[in-house]
Design goal:
mainly alpha
Amino acid sequence: MMKLEVFTLKVICVGVGDDELPALGELVAKLEIDNVFQANEPFSDLAYNYICDGLDDIFSEGDVFTNGDDYYAACKQLGAMIEDKFASWQIAPSRAMIDEIVDAFDVGDRMKNYFDDSNSHYTTRPAEPRLLETLSIDDLFSRDW
C-alpha cells in the first residue's frame, strides 16, 4: 500500500471535522481501485456518525420545514439535504443510511414542536397607550352644548 492510502486510512480511523471531510473525500476518491473499497466503507461510517452526532447543528428545522407542516414533504426535503451533504464529501450514501438519519431527526415530533413554537410567537399585542387616549377623546364636533 502506498503512503497516500496508509495516511488516508489512518485519518479515517482518527476522524475529522466537517471542514476536513470534503478534502478527505477527495483523498479517498484518488485511491487506487483496490484500496478505494477498503476506505469507502469506513469513510462513509465516519460521515454517517458525524451527521448523527450533529443533527441539530447540520440541519436547520427552518430549512427542513420549508413546505409547511407536510410530513412527507419534510422527510423528502431532509433526505435531499442529507444526500447533498454526503455529496459534498464525495460519498454516495445508501438509502438505508438516509432513512436512518431521517428517523433519527424525528421529523414528526420536531415538526409539531416547530410549528407550536412558531405559532406561540404570534400573540396579539396590547394597544399602545397613545392609541387608547386617542380613542377615548370625545367627538370634537359635537353640537351638544
